[in-house]
Design goal:
mainly beta, six-stranded mixed sheet, globular
Length: about 120
């Protein structure tokens, strides 16, 4: 079965950085577009970024463009999200997900708190 396990979240001050990781298993990882989405308390899920199967094409939400970088390692079945210049409004639970819109299977999430 599909399993997505996120890690790397934490508490940081505004302007700081974090690197989120997602370990994928249970399916042919390299065959799928992958995405990151996030959900802040009391708010709807927000799509953050996606990356195509080869890793050469990436898309970002306007709110994170220029600050976040998505990447993947198909040899390790891993997905990453580098978060730089973090802002308080980036505080949310971050999820990795199958599919360009991030609306297929998701992991349990990793919490990012910016103060």
């Amino acid at each position: 079965h599909v399993q997505l396990v996120e890690s790397g979240g934490g508490s940081v001050q505004a302007g700081g950085s974090l690197r989120l990781s997602c370990a994928a298993s249970g399916y042919t990882y390299s065959n799928y577009v992958m995405a990151w989405v996030r959900q802040a308390p009391g708010k709807e899920v927000e799509w953050v970024s996606n990356i195509n199967r080869s890793g050469k094409s990436k898309n970002y939400a306007d709110s994170v463009l220029g600050r976040f970088t998505i990447s993947r390692d198909n040899t390790k079945n891993m997905l990453y999200l580098q978060l730089n210049d973090l802002k308080t409004e980036d505080t949310a639970m971050y999820f990795c997900a199958k599919g360009a819109a991030g609306d297929e299977e998701r992991g349990q999430g990793t919490q990012v708190t910016v103060s």
